[in-house]
Design a protein that fits this description.
By secondary structure, the chain is mostly helical. About 85% of the residues lie in helices and about 0% in strands.
């Protein structure tokens, strides 16, 4: 997910999307434990997306206060 896409999202949408991505990461980890994934770089990409969204969410919340 690109930074420009994340910045366009509202605070509520960001919170929802972060939760969805965290659940997605947990599911990927579980599936990887059972049968290894072919592309393990998805873990890194998902973690980076989550971190990016959390950072932008913090910026938006700081601007509101």
């Amino acid at each position: 997910m690109k930074v420009s896409e994340v910045r366009e999202m509202s605070v509520a949408d960001l919170r929802d999307r972060i939760e969805v991505e965290k659940r997605n990461l947990d599911t990927m980890k579980l599936n990887h434990a059972i049968s290894p994934l072919e592309d393990t770089s998805k873990f890194k990409k998902t973690r980076q997306d989550i971190a990016r969204m959390i950072t932008i969410l913090a910026e938006k919340e700081k601007q509101q206060n």
